[in-house]
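Worked Example 4.2. Read the sequence first, then its C-alpha cells.
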Amino acid sequence: MSTVPAARMSGRAWALLLVLCGTIFLEGSDVAMLAVAIPTIRADLGLTTGTAAWVMSGYVLGYAGFTLLGGRAADLLGRRRMFLTWLGVFLVFSMLGGFATDGWMLVVARFVTGVAAAFMTPAAMSIITTSYPEGPQRNKALLVFAGVGAGGFSLGLVIGGLLTELGWRWVFFAPVFLAGAILLAALRLLPAEARPEPAHRGYDLAGAASAAAAMLLLAYGIVRLEHRGEGLGLTIGAFAAGLALVAMFIVIEWRAKTPLVRLGIFRKAAMVRANLAALLFLGAFFGFQFIVTLYLQELRGWSSLQTAIALIAMGCDAVLAPILTPRLVNRYGHARVIFGGFLLAIVAYGLFLTVEMDWSYAAMFPTLIISGTAFALAYGPLTIAATNSVAEEEQGLAGGLLYTFTQFGSAVGISAVTAVYGIAAAGTDGSPGAVLDAYRTALVVPVVMVLLGAAVSAFGLRSARPAGQRKGAAPAARDEVSDGVPG
C-alpha cells in the first residue's frame, strides 16, 4: 500500500480520508438511528421486550465476535478487498432489515450487519495507518476518523428521530444510500494493492475458529447481563465456555507456524494500555448515555426526538476532534491528552450524580458538553496509541484488537449500568423518587470506569513526551502538497 509522504495532505489524500470516514460515520449513525427507532419498531411489529433487546444485542454480538478475525483478515487477504466486500454485505443486509416483517428477521439482519462492520471498520482504519506516514499526518487522519465516527453517532440520534417520524423502515434504508455512495467512491479512490502472498503453511483456521467462538460466547455472556431473569446458569456457562476457548486460542497461537495473532504483539505495553483504556472509556460513555436516555424519556417524559436533540451537545467532539485535538497532541503528546480526556470525563459524570427530578436542560448542559469534549480528547489519541509502532503487516490486527476492546467496552458499560439499575430498583415501590435513586446508583458505574481508565492511562505519562521534544527527533517534514496516493 503506497503512503502519503507529505506533511500536508493534498486534495486526493483528503478525498481518500473522506471515503474512509464515511464508513465510520455510516457505522456510528446506523447504531444510533436504530437505538432511537426501537420503541416504534417494537410497537409496529408486536415484538416482545426480549426480542426488541436482541435486535440491538445481535449487532453487538456480530461486531464483537468477529472484529479480531476481521482485522487479521485485512492483513492476510487484502485491506481494499475486505473493505469493499464487507461494505457491500453491510449495504445488502441493512436493506433486508428494512423489509423485515418479523423479529427474527431483524435479529439476523442486525447480526450479519455487525459481522460486516467487524471486517469493514478495521480494514478502513488499517488503510489509514498504512497510507499515511506515522507522525503528524497519520495522527491527524486518525483523529478526523475518530471524530467523524463519534459525530456519526451523535447526529444519528437526531437523524433517527426524524426518520422514525417518516417510518421506521427508513432507519434501515437510509444507510443503504450512504453505503452505495461510499462504495462507488471507494472503487475509484482506494489505492490498489498487490494480492497478499498466501501463508507458506496455510492459514490458521483453528485459531480463527477458536477466536471467533470465544469472542461470540463472551459477548453473548455480557449482553445477557442486561436481560435479567433469563437464567443465570446459561450466562455463567457462556462466560466459562468463552474463557476456555480463549485459553485454547492462546495454546493454538503459541504452537502455530503462521498464527492468526502473533502473541508477541501483546508485549507492546503502550498498545495494550491503550486498548484497556479504550474499553473503559467507551464503556463509561455508552453506559452514561444509556442511563441519561432512560432518565429523560422514562422519568421526564421527553420524546425520542427531544432526547436526541438534547444529547447532540455530546456531539461537540465531531468538531473538536479534527480541530483542537491535533494541536494538543502535537504540543503535549497523545498520552497527556488521553489522560486529560479521562479527567474531564470524571468531572462530567461526577456532576450528574446529583441529578434531580426537575433539572432544567441548563443544569444538564455542563455534563453533556464536558463529556463530549472528553471524548474528543481521549478517543482519537487512543487510536493513535493503539496503532503506533505496530508493523505495517499487522496494522489490520492492531485495528481489530482496538475495535474488539471498544465493542466489549460498550457492551460491558451498558450491561453493567442496566444490572446495577435493576438491582437498585428491585423491591422498591416504583415511584418516581425510587426510580431516580436507582438511576443515581447506576450512574456510579461510568464514574468508576473512567477512574480506572485514568489510572491505566497514567502509566503512560512517565514516558510520554511531545513528538517535537523527543531527543533526536527528526525535523518536521516540509509543507508540501503532493500526496502519492495512487489513482
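Now turn to a second chain, presented in exactly the same format:
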Amino acid sequence: MIVTLTINPAIDRILSVDRLAFEDRAYINSIRQSAGGRGLNASNVIHSFGGQTQAVLISGGASGKRLEGLLEGCGFPIVLVPVKNSIRTNLTITDKQGLTVNLNEVGPALTGPELAKVERAVRRALDGADWLMLCGSTPPGVPSSFYAKMIGLARQKKVKTLLHVGGDSLREGIEARPTVATPNQPEAERLLGRTILTRAHSLEAAAQLRAMGPESVVLSLGSRGAVGAFPDGLIEVMPPRVDAVCPIGAGDALTAVFTWSMSRRDNLADALRWGVAAGTASSRLPGMSFASLAQTEEVYRQVEVRRVE
C-alpha cells in the first residue's frame, strides 16, 4: 500500500488554447476540471498502473465539495480531513505548441486543531502501509517542519517515505532523512543557492543533496531525464527525445511510478527508469494528463540508464 498525503489539494482548471503569445489574444479550445494536488496525482497514476494506494487530503468549503464530487468513482480509498476554509483553485493554460502557464492559489489557512486532525489521519493510514508519499506545497498555518514530523512518524512505523516538495519544507524534510527526496531542478537550485546548468552540475547537486540526509535522491531534470544519487552510487537516466505537448504534471508522474516500481521490489535504477519513462510519456499528452502503463512501457524501452564511474 502506498499512502499519499495532499495537504494542499486543488480544483485544477485546465484551459487548452490555440496559442499563447504576449499581448495577444488566444482562443479557448477546451476547458476541463480535475481534482488536483501532487499527492492526488500520484495516487491516480499508481492506481492506473495497478498499484494499491490510499489518498489522505483536506477538504473544505464549496470548492471542497466540488473536489469530493470529482473524486467519486476514482477507484481507490480516500481519507478526507474536513477543514473550515475553502480549498484552492488552480489555473493551467496550455497551447498546441506546449507552452504552458500555471497559476496557483496559496490554499486555505489551517488551524492547529485542523492540522492535528491531519496528523491523526496519516497515523491511522500508515498501519499496513509500505510507503508514505509527502507531496506538494503546504497551505498557510502549516509549519515548514510538518513534513519532517511526518517522516519521523513513518520511520517509527517502519514505513518508507518519499518527499516531493520544495522550499523550506524541502530543506527541513531532507534533514529528517526520508527514504527518497525527489526535487526538480528549480527546487534544487533554490535549496542549494546555485544554478544547475551542466551535467557536472547535476551530478554534483544530486550528491550534495544526498549528503544532507536522505537515503537516496532523485533530481528531476525535465526533458533531460534525471540523476539518481543512491547508496551504491550515481546514475543518469536519459529519455528519448519526444515532442512535449504539456510538461505540467510530468514530475508527479515520475515520482508516482518510481514509487510504484519500488513497491514491486524493483531496484533503484530500474525504478528511476520507469519513473523517467512515465514523466516523458505524460509530457507528450495534451493538458495535464498522465500516461497509461502501455504508453509508459513504450517509452521505457527507449530510456537509457548510465552508471557514473
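Notes for the reader: The chain has a mean pLDDT of 93. The longest strand covers residues 28-36.
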